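In response to reviewer comment 3 from the previous cycle, which asked for concrete evidence that the modeling workflow produces usable outputs, we include below a single protein chain processed end to end. The sequence was submitted unchanged, and the resulting structure tokens are shown without manual editing.
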Amino acid sequence: MSLPKTPSFRLDGKRALIAGASSGIGLGCAVALAQAGATVTLAARSIEKLEETASQLRQAGLLAGTLAMDVSDIKATQKLVASEGPFDILVNSAGTAAHSLAIETTEEDYDAVANLNTKGAYFLTTSVAKALIAAKKPGSLINLSSQMAHVGGIERAVYCATKHAVEGFTKAMAIEFGPYKIRVNTICPTFVRTALTEPTFANPDRVKWLEEKIKLGRVGEVSDIMGAVVYLASDASALMTGTHMLIDGGWTAD
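The workflow returned the following structure tokens.
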């Protein structure tokens, strides 16, 4: 009897584009993919932070470059991806939030969140897919979604709406891109300690709410996401597409 062989989690020879890589989860994903052997391109609006991170990665013997990219600028993003691609792996961690009661949401806040979280993510994903299809290459496209794509939350109607939409187009694109061996999935974290979430952790009422909802009794750390992104990017998840990975400490188990 021959024993089954574990698929490789290595990403040697693969090119990965990480949008929103200047801090937080995006930065963690970039480091994880580089440590798994991928050549990573760190992308964000401000390139100064990216250069520092890329330099640290290169000093560690890893392969890293940078790219100035504003995901909400659709035409510029499409042009950049077309000229710099194809990328075997996409991780879109660019996102924002504007928390308020639903009846107090302004149109400006709605547009700012939706343009980046949904519209920007949609066209970045299709841009990377288009280049892969033209090159006749397979790929793994990963959007950072949220547990809020599967539940509702206090003062998060707009954010929930955008992340539910990401889950929807992920499923549709997985169907369309499947024949080209291009996989599309999401990662859905609970609240993770980053610069973006610090206002939430500074609010005692919100912290109490988090502690009641997260069954493991702690919030997320960037490191909790790093293994998941390597898994989805690698051959270890070769049969996964059109779905999500919830990393929520049991939040959605109710």
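The beta strands are 15-19, 39-44, 64-68, 89-92, 139-144, 182-189, 244-247. We consider this sufficient to address the reviewer's concern, and the full set will be provided in the supplementary archive.
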